[in-house]
Amino acid sequence: xxxxxxxxxxxxxxxxxxxxxxxxVLALLLGGGGFYATWSGLILGASTDTAHExxxxxxxxxxxxxxxxxxxxSLGPDSRSEHxxxxxxxxxxxxxxxxxxxLAPRIMxxxxxxxxxxxxxxxxxxxxxxxxxxxxxxxxxxxxxxGRVRDLLITEFxxx
Length: 160
Known about the structure:
The protein contains 6 helices and 4 strands. It has 160 residues and is an alpha+beta fold. The model has no long low-confidence stretch (mean pLDDT 87).
C-alpha cells in the first residue's frame, strides 16, 4: 500500500492583523483631524477671530416705556370685589415716546371706558387676562395711530 504523507491536521495560515490595525489608526487620525478642522473654524466658515470670543446680547435700542396713571374702577354690586386697581406701561417705538406721552389722557379715557363697560365676571376671571390685555392694546393702538405702540405691560391688576 502506498501512503502519502499529507498532514491533515495542519491549520490554514493566519491572516495578518496589520491592515486592520492600520485602518483603525487612520480612522482615528482622520476623525480627530476632521473634528479639529471643524472646531477651529477651518471648515464651515467660522473665523478664528470670532470663534473664541464670547458674544453677549446687543444693547436694547429703539424702545421706550411710557407709564400710565393708575386707574381705580368701581365694580358693580354683583361683583365679589368693590374696586379694580389698574396700572400699566406702554411699550413704544423710541421716536414715538413723546407723541404717546402727549396722548396719555386719551389713552386713559379709552382704558377707563373699556374697563367700566366689560362684565365684572370677565374682570374676575384669571383666564381672561390675555384677552383683556389684547383688547386694551388694540384700543390704545387705534388712539395713538399704527406703528407707535408695540405692547401693553400691565404692572398692577388688583381686585379689592
